[in-house]
Design goal:
Length: about 450
Amino acid sequence: MTDQPAHSDDRATDPDEPRVREIQSPGLQVTNGLFHTVAGLTMGSITTFLGVLVLAIVIEETGVLDLLGVDLDFDALFRASMGPVLISWGVMAIAWPAVLIAGRFATFAAVEELARQHPTSVPPRAVREGLKTPPAKMLRDAGVLVCWIAGGLLALCVCLSIYMAGENFDSFVISLIITAVVAGLFGIGYVMTVFGRRYEPAQVERLDALRAAWKRQAPRADHADRAIRKTLPVAELPHMVRTGARGGFWVTALGWLLGLGAAIFMLGVMLRQPCRHCEQRTYGAAGESVIDSAATLGGGLLTVFGLLCLAAWLFSVGRRMLAEESLRRWLAAGGRRRVEDQGRVVDLLGAESTGSLANITLASFGTAVLIIAGGIAMVEWEGVDASIALAVGQGMLFIAVLVGALSYRREVGMRVLMRERLLPGDLPSPAELAKQRQNEAERKQRKSQRRDERRR
């Protein structure tokens, strides 16, 4: 099946009018869901690893479970959960480049379809800037990197297999299996390199033709929107949209407090055992009390502020959802209007949708459930069945991908509606906008200085 972009902004009277049009396709929907799921996997694996580590140390230092009469070995859980954590990091190492390259191919196919359907229109600037490198070149470079890494590992595995052949038969079989897996990775890298080299010249030629067309049409599209925008009545965005997501401030503030708790906690740990292979140090009664207090206080702060960070994150996502719905109703209720703060429009067009944030959140929770359930299954705690939790974690990851894929279409629909109602034109990227704001501030400062000099 080919990617067929659905351009919903064809409400203009002249379909051949130069316009900045959003792109959408089934391929982009899938890669968007996968991208945010991998982002959630990254967030979930790191936070779960740190959370279990902190809990294990705090429980060992304070003996709180012994006081409560609970016979659970959290230190063993931490050690056992390292297996699922390492597996998740291995998945990330493969998934990140794969998703990014797949997304680049889907974007390239979508912009080519846009050029065929609307030759005088251009995709948004962020899309154009993201296609500076042909997808086939990314595939080739990734394949070369995989070949180099897998080739080095393959040489080591072959040497290890030769050594194990005369030592132990079981170890020799395991080394052969590992060698076969690494050889398969080398083969995959070689295939990626071959396909990348085969399709790169054609993609470079087609991308150059697209860039030439964009260079001609982008100023025309921006001028057309600007000319109409000047004639429109000025309007203010809804209050909830103007004030932004306040939950983001609290997440940042609590993040700093979380860092403070981590510093106090690590101070207690380092005083007890300065390095991994160092012997644990003992102090007098006063020193032991200080170390226990530091570990308990730091661990408590980490736990409390970590939970508050989670609550602030969920609050931010919920508030963003309300703001999105408020903006959608505001855009749908009226006709075309002019918003003076174009920087805010840039932020809105580039902001992550609540669907994407929900995707990341679901994937993070799903990853945490899988890691903890995997550790519990390896520890074999009495009376604790991890099979249901494992199934729940897998289901959450699957739902996360679906949420991301389905929400992408709604996200593009919102951006299409914004471009139709607000006519923002070919907006600068956030980095360019920040530079423009800095230049404008410097220009105003110089003007103010010259005015002060004349008064003197």
